[in-house]
Amino acid sequence: MKKRNRVSSLAALAAAALLAIAGCSGSGGKEAQEGSGGIGAGTADTPRLRVAMITHAAPGDTFWDLVRKGAEAAAAKDNVELLYSADPEAGQQANLVQNAIDQKVDGIALTLAKPDAMTGVVRKAEAAGIPVVGFNSGLDDWKGMGLLQYFGQDEAIAGKQFAERLNELGAKRAICVNMEQGHVALEARCGGLRDNFDGKSETLYVNGQDMPAVQSTIQAKLQQDPDIEYVVTLGAPFALAAVQSVADAGSSAKVATFDTNKDLVKAIKDGDVQFAVDQQPYLQGYLAVDSIWLYRHNGNFSGGGEQPVLTGPAFITKDNIDSIAEFAENGTR
Amino acid sequence: MTQAVQPAPAPAPPEPGHAQAGRRSVGKRFFGRPEVGSLMGAVAVFVMFFVIAEPFRHAASLSTVLYASSTIGIVTVGVALLMIGGEFDLSAGVAVTTSALTAAMFAFEFTTNVWVGIVVALALSLGIGMFNGYVLIRTRLPSFLVMLSTFLMLQGLNLAVTKLVSGGVATDSIADMDGFDSARAVFASALTIGAVSVKVTVFWWLAFVAIATWVLLRTKVGNWIFAVGGQADSARAVGVPVKRTKIGLFMTVGFTAWFAGMHKLFAFNTVQSGEGVGQELIFIAAAVIGGCLLTGGYGSAVGAAIGAFIFGMTGQGIVYAGWNPDWFMFFIGATLLAATLLNLWVRNRAARR
């Protein structure tokens, strides 16, 4: 009895506290956001298809959310039922592909972050007559594995172009902030940057699960080496943390990043982040699903099984930010 | 519950209450404290980086180290109290994210003053703590199992609810909303002391440690905590409210997770729903390094703070020292092991005196 009283009095207390300060915000919030819709279009009258998209995305990553939104937009247009699943662990991802084969889907779009782990299930899908499309990761392997086509960015080219941009800006010293030690694509970016950068570039590993730790580690690095001119991050949320590190360390370093999200677009606009290399995740997801629809209904495929379709790298700077800002606000860029 | 009734393996010295103070020598009392071993470890780590890394010696660097320690240390206060009380919480890491997500989404979706979101998040965090404690006590399942379930459920909820409510996997920025500036001043501002800017979380951390220490050593509740962690059945027999104490401890963890979540939110304006996984082990590790026993009944809040400080120093010190970053995780692990061994050695010597 006593416990029950305590619970209800606690709830009452919380409610009272809420009522006491239930002031509304005059700025920002949902009310300010309302009125902005997503991308919408008609629906194809072709028979319904089932397409599985299987990625190596970590849960809650803003980048992968854009991929998924692109895939969903294509699915809605093409009268496709999209089965989206993801697991960062290669063996688990292979199980998810097997799961899709068991469901006899009409097509599979998958990422090849760890190509060797996917070889077996890709062969099974082919044996079952299911077309497989690669995207995002696996530029070097999709052809050899017999995938139909590939949509993505060449990470080494992206790293190289990033380095060339830094060279043009006359930078001599940079750090590459990696939030996941041992991740192949991320290491490739830092590697491409290091190999083509005229100055000196060092990798800094941070704990991507803990933003205050990311911020303080970058800050420590800036204090340790005051000559750093550019902080290069490999994901948009980390660029925003780096901006704070630079400010708190009293450093004059500038921040640039791979990949974008809504808040990053704002940061570029405000000049907090110098530029971002965009591989257009929305486009990757959209094309992967749409291409299966085209293949199923019209036998089309891109690149003749030889050449990939490159979705990046595109540079986003203060000069061209306005052209994508409105889409970013909708959460689709 | 099961851990609580097992006898502690180490010869846990009795809580040095005021009654015994006169009978023991000053030296013995000093070395008998749970935090002394970790203090030695902290001094060793500090001296090591002070010698090796030139940038580590600047006051600004110490401020960075203290900030990194404080974001770990605030939750560690709650986790350490809970461990002294004989239970542990695997969900604390993701609970931080849950709290931040709740405050951000509530304020944003209903376009309220952000302080409303903050209060809602506090209520939810305390509620989660109460739920944890209640389920544990009602079911009498091992706390590992209950906490693992809560950890996984919260991890899923963080993602699913965020996606459901905001349509994305990160919350919308609340930086332009009413009340943001005052909330930021409370949870994520910086104070300038001399020429050095120190984050406000450092002072909150020290305050929480002081309060927890006072509760543990000077109040009836503190005695209850030690009692339920050491011998729950005996404690119940002499009239200690075991259930209420344990539920209260879980709610304390909820409170500290809420505070850390609010810091995260107001320092970075948005929160990613996937964050926080793995942090729970860092909190527990910091408490253990600080002298808390995994079996309960022994430990201190000051020790837990020193444990968090060792974590903060090691993580940042390696960067200041400019060691090869490929070895980063190895160095953290090795330093922690060395600090813990030193801790154990000091404690064993203290027991022998």
3D architecture notes:
The complex is a heterodimer of chains A (333) and B (353). With 333 residues, chain A is α/β, with parallel strands linked by helices. Chain A contains 12 helices and 12 strands. Chain A has a 6-stranded parallel beta sheet with strand order 2-1-3-4-5-11, sandwiched between helices. In chain A, strands 7-6-8-9-10-12 form a 6-stranded mixed beta sheet, with helices on both faces. In chain A, α6 runs parallel beside α7 and α8 packs across α9. Chain A is globular, with a radius of gyration of 23 Å. The mean pLDDT of chain A is 86. With 353 residues, chain B is an all-alpha fold. Chain B is 71% helix and 2% strand. In chain B, a hairpin with a 2-residue loop joins β1 and β2. The radius of gyration of chain B is 20 Å and the shape is globular. At the A-B interface, α1, α2, α3, β7 and α8 of A face α4, α5, α6, α7 and α12 of B.
Give the CATH level 1 class of chain B: Mainly Alpha
Find the structural class of chain B using helix and strand composition.
mainly alpha
Morphology call of chain A: globular
CATH homologous superfamily of the largest domain in chain A, by name? Response regulator
Number of domains of chain A: 2
Oligomer: heterodimer
